[in-house]
Amino acid sequence: MSRIDRRFADLASGGRTGLVPFFTAGDPSPDSVVPVMHALVEAGADLIELGVPFSDPMADGPVIQHASERALAKGVGLARVFDWVREFRTRDAATPVVLMGYMNPVEIHGAARFGAEAVAAGVDGVLLVDCPIEEIAAAGPLRDAGLTQIFLAAPTTTDARLAQVCAAARGFLYYVSFAGITGADRLSTGDVRERVAAIRRQASTPVAVGFGVRDATSAAAIGEFADAVVIGSALVERLAGAADADEAAARARAFLAPIRAALDKRT
Amino acid sequence: MERIDDYSVYPDARGRFGDYGGSYVAETLIAPLAELDAAYQRLRTDRAFIAEFERDLKYYVGRPSPIYHAERLSRQVGGAQILLKREDLNHTGAHKINNTIGQALVARHMGKRRIIAETGAGQHGVATATVCARFGLDCVVYMGATDIERQKINVYRMKLLGAEVVPVTSGSKTLKDALNEAMRDWVTNVADTFYIIGTVAGPHPYPQMVRDFNAVVGREARAQMLEQYGRLPDVITACVGGGSNAIGLFHAFLNDRDVRVVGAEAAGEGIASGHHAASLAAGRPGVLHGNRTYVLCDDDGQITETHSVSAGLDYPGVGPEHAFLKDSGRADYVGVTDDEALAAFHQLARSEGILAALESSHAVAQAIKLARELPQDRLVLCNLSGRGDKDVHTIAAREGLSL
């Protein structure tokens, strides 16, 4: 059983909603990445989505795009992202780590090499925003290397296609709560609830919901029906400008703890 | 790579040109792209739609555009005869209108009232704003802040036509960033919005659709060559940024194996300088803006900033069909520097009384190089994709003049 599957199984048996924070590797600073990862786990993260910076993040809003630009300006590349996960793993063997990013860095690095290096570093999964199931073959070497490829479903996903996405899903299915970019403020909980219920009837994997979750209140609302809640832009915003690694870790902890509490109060 | 017998059958149903193309987009865009693909595949063979398109090309755009024999230029060069396909004479001054008319008609058939577009040099933005005015559609154009500065006249032109021009200040503030921003708008407003992409890039079906609408250039040129010269040209050439005017010219000639096909990319300050936009000549296969193609990026896959004196060629990717033509060996892609393009601009202006767009000046420079190597009875057909009025400020500034 993969680390991702084990984590979701534990959540299910404990009746808890998963909490999945996202932040961009290298932002606010390269030396804060590993301390922030540990701080997030201490504050209740069940799985960490680590953003691999990309120059042209088409599906992201300005918050994550700027974080990407800042990280790239500091010279953050794949090798360092893998190093950070390796360092994180020396103290945390249980928390799954999913790299989130775009196809081009994988293509240029070579998908087989990317997969081997990621697995060796202790990465569990990849979520490639611009690799829908149509292009699933391109990521084949990643899966062959042992990474779980996470797929997305969106409000625009048709019913026929949803069945295909659900069939392809491994680890968990990421439901994009509204048609838009990350960090936008358009969340309508009622629509999402209905849709997630439909997905859960078809998918054999848990369903995580992201896009537009900003705080304890919105997280708790989504946590009513989702297996896990993903929270990204709001965290990235909070981390931005932290003076050093200690402050970044403190901000991460202060940001996530109330969200964890709100999710747990419900269950 | 396997031997290609018929170049007209690409892309396949999944939008592939060999290893290139496809639909590398966020899940949210899959359904709208499928809806667009279904509508377009139906319309492209619909006789009423084709008639509607052709009527506008004739009476609104002013097609067919002539093939003009640049005799004085050819004499100066002293080699083959240089023939110019005069897309600069189209309404709005470039080939771009062929595509925007076509896509606006598709949008109308799909019931979408709001049009968005991205633009580099501003030519596609102007062509989009123009057809939106013509069809009564709302129009929002995304443009890099750097390009807005470089192309003030086109920005004002778009506003005169009723479009809203949104400056994009992220990344390098040029075409690729405008494209990212337009994609984001589309993801967010997909229900009522049609995205008119200006080049043969982007996810399927855009590379096919934009090519089909521009392919009128090559179809016309091929018939005109046979009519005026009794034969096909020996070489055809066009500038390649995203590659829409080039594929427009090339496509009808791809199965004519005796016609040599040469694309001119922007080599900027020289490929060795690193300041260029020659994705095919100096890039590598990757994934950008929804398709697999040649891209300019570093070893970590980060897209690199490009340079060209012409905003319209300043793009780190290229249409997937060009990537396919390069790998199959059917077309050659070579770099033309800023200086060579400017020299060609001046030479054409003085010898023929034609101010070419800086983009098209790259093709003219390449045509001159090709002609020089060939005997006088050979024919080099060059796509003069746009007129240079928009560039006079840029050219003056480079020469230290302020107008």
UniProtKB/TrEMBL annotation, chain A:
GO molecular function: tryptophan synthase activity
Pfam families linked to this entry: Trp_syntA
CDD domains in the cross-refs: Tryptophan_synthase_alpha
GO annotation, cellular component aspect: cytosol
Active site positions: 49, 60
Catalytic function, reaction form: (1S,2R)-1-C-(indol-3-yl)glycerol 3-phosphate + L-serine = D-glyceraldehyde 3-phosphate + L-tryptophan + H2O
Pathway involvement of the protein, from the record: Amino-acid biosynthesis; L-tryptophan biosynthesis; L-tryptophan from chorismate: step 5/5
Keywords, in A-Z order: Amino-acid biosynthesis, Aromatic amino acid biosynthesis, Lyase, Tryptophan biosynthesis
Presence of the UniProt keyword Zinc in the record: no
Gene3D superfamilies according to UniProt: Aldolase class I
Assembly description: Tetramer of two alpha and two beta chains.
NCBIfam families named in the record: trpA
Protein family according to the UniProt entry: Belongs to the TrpA family.
Protein known as: Tryptophan synthase alpha chain
Lineage: Bacteria, Pseudomonadati, Pseudomonadota, Gammaproteobacteria, Lysobacterales
Designated gene of the protein: trpA
Automatic annotation (TrEMBL), chain B:
The reaction(s) this protein catalyses: (1S,2R)-1-C-(indol-3-yl)glycerol 3-phosphate + L-serine = D-glyceraldehyde 3-phosphate + L-tryptophan + H2O
GO cellular component: cytoplasm
CDD domains: Trp-synth_B
InterPro entries assigned: Trp_synth_b_CS, Trp_synth_beta, Trp_synth_beta/beta-like, TrpB-like_PALP, TrpB-like_PALP_sf
Enzyme class name: lyase
Cofactor(s) listed: pyridoxal 5'-phosphate
N6-(pyridoxal phosphate)lysine modified-residue sites: 96
Domain Tryptophan synthase beta chain-like PALP intervals: 62-386
Positions in coiled-coil regions: none
Pathway where it operates: Amino-acid biosynthesis; L-tryptophan biosynthesis; L-tryptophan from chorismate: step 5/5
A Pfam family assignment: PALP
GO molecular function: tryptophan synthase activity
Entry EC no(s): 4.2.1.20
Lineage top rank: taxon: Bacteria
UniProt keyword list: Amino-acid biosynthesis, Aromatic amino acid biosynthesis, Lyase, Pyridoxal phosphate, Tryptophan biosynthesis
UniProt function note: The beta subunit is responsible for the synthesis of L-tryptophan from indole and L-serine.
Family (UniProt): Belongs to the TrpB family.
Oligomer status and interactors: Tetramer of two alpha and two beta chains.
This protein's name: Tryptophan synthase beta chain
